[in-house]
């Protein structure tokens, strides 16, 4: 086992090259990028094999961190949630604007993403601001968070003891590389590499609380000196079409502004410029505006599910916090399929009957009808 000290972190970064994205965007966002590549064609298979050879001994990289109350407080407020957990009596509980969560408060599903953020000196970051941890060699340095899964093995509501990440605990993150596979984007014929990474999060008692598997897509780097064609904005659905699209569904609508994206970037220490630098996002990477973080959409799907599932099950009485509904899924599998853009409304939705099912299909759908993220939330004990 390797402890990820400052020196070790630097070695990993220098063994890789700069990346260009840390969220789930898709091939359609830069479908014409093949004319703007910064490097000549390379052998994806050879680069994948060279990347895996760096981790062929199965080494792990370990970090430890205190889950402090202020970080999770600011993170929840940035997501416009005044409480970490849905409450049955808001009047009896102070909001996060008024007070930090007390020690021992469980961290909601996927909110662990505000901890264990990238830790690199500025000179090691890519030109686009992204960190270079666990990257393949050039030219495959443009990273996108394409999907993955999160499991909460210690959150079984029927267990005598639950192993959860909680505020005030010192937690250990264990990271390992699982895979690196060459792929081809069907629409463009462009080569890419798909890297699988696994992160374990263990509490102070060394109990596994979260198993977080992430799939990163690495595409060929773009040449910033060559202008990018913008992604056209599709026509939004009419109000009648929007109303019809949510019939029989539980849903919420969002339109993320630049301030929200900037705060989310700061709290996750994500310096990728597509989230806050509009000229970079539009002129270099070809987006039509700044891009909403993929993890923000993942959390939105989980927030919708846990709020509705908690109400349906009557969770709250006798839970760890007065009047708070503490309820976790068993797991979620998710995949980003298209970017979500700042100041463009979109909806997170799932079928109403899904709260009474073992598996709940969740979707992030732009108001022009584009499906931007898909997820399947698995409950603990309900029948299919």
UniProtKB/TrEMBL annotation:
The lineage of its organism: Eukaryota, Fungi, Dikarya, Ascomycota, Pezizomycotina. Residues 26-40 have a biased composition (Low complexity). One of its GO terms (molecular function) is (3R)-hydroxyacyl-[acyl-carrier-protein] dehydratase activity. GO terms for cellular component: mitochondrion. InterPro entries: HotDog_dom_sf (IPR029069), Mitochondrial_HTD2 (IPR052741). It comes from the Eukaryota. Residues 24-43 are annotated as: Disordered. Signal peptide: none annotated. This is N-terminal of MaoC-like dehydratase domain-containing protein. It comes from Cladophialophora immunda.
